[in-house]
Amino acid sequence: MSGTLKLAIGSIAVGIVVFALKYLAFHVSGSIALYSDAIESIINVATAIAAFFAVRLSAIPPDANHPYGHHKAEYLSAVLEGVLIVVAALTILREAYVGFLAPRPLDAPFIGLAINAGASVINAVWCAVLFRWGRRWRSPALLADARHLWTDVITSAGVVVGVALVPLTGWLQLDAIFAALVAVNILWAGWKLVQESVGGLMDEAAPSDTLERVRALISSHAEGALEAHDLRTRHAGRVTFIDFHLVVPGTMTVSESHAVCDRIEDALRAGIEDVVVSIHVEPEEKAKHPGGVPVV
After folding, report:
1. Where in the cell is it found (predicted)?
2. For the chain, which residues make up each domain, given as ranges?
């Protein structure tokens, strides 16, 4: 089992533990704000399960029906997570509205807060683990899960402050107000997550720093060629696809041009993780810039 799959399973286990603690905190205190925090944890569990299946599917090698692999499955998981976040936020807003119109005193707010804070510490530790390995393995599903958990940690901190102020100030509507603020924050996080995932599904180009590295690697390892142009990149999960045209002298043999391509491909694979490279070799009359330019 890959490390990514192990982390996805770990997210499911952590999500279940955190949800149980947060629901206990709500049950003890009766706080709508703590209820909103517990609702978000249900989404954590659901999306962790979706991330597990997405990571497992994305690891399947290319086949006849999917010659480019199954890497985009992770983006589908991230989109699903964004949609579920929006649904959770709307549910919380409804409860906050009802609670604001008919507020009631909290039962045991400080006990509930202590339980909720413990759950948030677990979330924060696991979030750091997901960020570290999600970036290293360039996994959209793990990074989406990490960003959602970080949003959960931040909102939980706000909830703790808000719920603590209710018994201290006697203003019962504060509980519903903080629940609504949690919902708004969750909505924003869900929108950003869906936006990023749709970008991946729409074959956005690699980031500018990656593009510069690709150009530099091609230029420094294309000795013997005349020009490289029409460079294109796209992301699909952990994989970066790179394709371009390489112009070589008309007198160069097929074997010699193939050796140049191999040298460039080896350099790109060594310099950038998880790449698939496609090079179209062209004769010198196809050059777009007579005299030669390294990479266009």
Report:
1. Cell membrane
2. 3-201, 208-286
- Contacts of residue 56, defined as CB under 8 A and 6 or more positions apart, other chains included, come to 5, 8
Is the pLDDT at 294 greater than 60? The verdict is no
Q: Which CATH superfamily is domain 3-201 in?
A: Cation efflux protein transmembrane domain (1.20.1510.10)
Mean of pLDDT values over 59-85: 75
Predicted local distance difference test score (pLDDT) of residue 125: 94
> Is 50 exceeded by the pLDDT of residue 296?
no
- Look at 293 and 206; give whichever has higher pLDDT: 206
Q: What pTM does this model have?
A: 0.59
Q: How far is CA 126 from CA 145, 188, 199, in A?
A: 10, 22, 26
Nearest alpha carbon to residue 228 among 214, 241, 208: 214
Q: How far apart are CA 213 and CA 220, in angstroms?
A: 11
The amino acid sitting at 255 is S
Digit-coded pLDDT (tens) for 264-287: 999 999 999 888 999 999 998 888
What is the average per-residue pLDDT within 73-85? 72
